[in-house]
Amino acid sequence: MSGEQDPRASRPKRATIVDVALHAGVSTASASKVLRNAYGVSDAMKKKVQASMDALGYRPHRPARGMRGRTYTVGMMVSDIDNPFFSLISDGASSVLRPRDYELLVSPAGYDAVSQNQAIEALIDHQMDGLILVAPLVTQADLERVAAEIPVVVVGNHSEALSLDSVSGDDARGAGLIVDHLVELGHRRIGFVANHQVSPESNRPESVRLAGFLDAMERHGLERDAVVIDAQWSLDGGRDAVRLIDALDEPPTAVFAGADITALGIMSELWGQQRSVPGAYSLAGYDNSRIASVGPIGLTTIDQSGDEMGRTAGRLLLERIEGRNEATHLLLDPALVARTTTAPRNS
Amino acid sequence: MSGEQDPRASRPKRATIVDVALHAGVSTASASKVLRNAYGVSDAMKKKVQASMDALGYRPHRPARGMRGRTYTVGMMVSDIDNPFFSLISDGASSVLRPRDYELLVSPAGYDAVSQNQAIEALIDHQMDGLILVAPLVTQADLERVAAEIPVVVVGNHSEALSLDSVSGDDARGAGLIVDHLVELGHRRIGFVANHQVSPESNRPESVRLAGFLDAMERHGLERDAVVIDAQWSLDGGRDAVRLIDALDEPPTAVFAGADITALGIMSELWGQQRSVPGAYSLAGYDNSRIASVGPIGLTTIDQSGDEMGRTAGRLLLERIEGRNEATHLLLDPALVARTTTAPRNS
DNA sequence: GTGAAAGCGCTAACAG
DNA sequence: CTGTTAGCGCTTTCAC
Lengths: 347, 347
Hints:
Chain A is an alpha/beta fold.
């Protein structure tokens, strides 16, 4: 009679597990067991309860589940959702999580350790069942601390930690593929953009790719022709790199930009100066972003199969959630994708 | 003494609000009030409780909060996290949500109505305090049904619904800006890639841009020179568009691709055929993706300030959560960004 | 194989 | 202004 102006009055309340149990004529405990596919329910019971759930349009309330058991939700931390590679990873992870009734929620955490740590804590506060951390910038100690609280899979960063799993591309090998390719084209003096903001001995991709570059150059007897340029891995960093390269006494004839985004910055700056690629020098990236394949760009790069990384991360996380305690660290094989930004030395 | 092998045994339990209350020597109700910044607590009490929270490293348990009150979490549904524009929106929204102690979690929902509806339901099941839906593909009726349950702000799609808010760019005006620019360059016969998979009378950006294009052409007395090409708004769709344009009896001298991604597909296909832009025809996109500014691309496009959209969406959602009930629908002004893919007709 | 009852951490309603 | 208490929806002992 009253309260018709209250929007909530007209809103049918959500069915709860009590409603389901009442409707099916069983106890809430049994309804709960059916919901969770738990051990020890008869087929008849299962059928009856599921019918009631359907009839009532029942959907479990996640916070309530989280109070006692699992939330059936996995959190994924990324620095920035605007990264084609991250998108592949989340799609891959979802594809294995969803059939198992787990949902994936993404937290865009920014590019510094402080805000990434906050985002991770927030995910834990949400009582997520597990975490996928994509290329985290936090310290190894932070990672271990988090992994002590909740199942964790790190994607993109190499790791040897015992308390968590990791999946990443074999960046040392990938860097080697680029060097081999350039040397084969006749280049000897080769530059590498290093993103040295990270400490060189870390296990971030930046460091591993640098080490892989130096190793490969040495393998070819070119250690004296390895030129390391220090600029950020970003569009603007690439622009800076052009100036640094131009200032060199003995500039390289080919540049390995470390990442596609950096290579794009380099191309863009050269273009603005009416210079071309590979005219000015050959150029290679890393990541095989979607944009790398677009005609006018045609960037030579390394493909890492983000999709497979995501699927693997999802699988490992489910295993952890289910109780596995031994660490698994996987390295996926990278592949060279040669396009038009790399050319023989004297052409 | 026992259970040292149980990982949970060594793990210090999380501090709860009861621990805080005990530590501060107050009731849990008072501690809760301090936590929520609620009305009616003395300064002394506030200080005391906050000190205890800090001392214990207390972090509220979100599911528990969600059981009775708010989760202080906002959900954002996007089709795909790999969209530079969506990234700007999430950053913008976060920047207004975070200072108010709300957290943003993103759900990558895919490109069909069914999975988007599922993602939205999952967000509701999480007891989110409000939802930001970015360019949803679901029906208007679905939107209203959702908005009856939870505060909703739609970003990108125009809307007149009374139960929810919306923020979008003025796509009709934006399309007009492109046409004006092309006409000014001397073009008369102009093509538009229409992404006709959506019903033309919908309020999706696709339809509004098409209408804006046709209106502008008419305004210039060029209605007979408006050429509508039907191809998907994607890299591959752009490639298809090239073939469709080539098959035309009277091909346009300029093409408005409807979206940057489509324009990139067109450029890529032309490049593969050794043709250039604007050599083959002038080309314009829409969205001002980051990649549009990269030198070799240099795409003429429309900028929509995703950052401002995100901030506005966040602000509107907070107002809704705080109880506003009147609908707000905002249209943001787009701006032309002329680059090198558009040139005078006879050059 | 099934059910009754306790309780997860928090907030809201009310009493003092 | 502060404290007591009930209960949100679910899972989990522990009886039966």
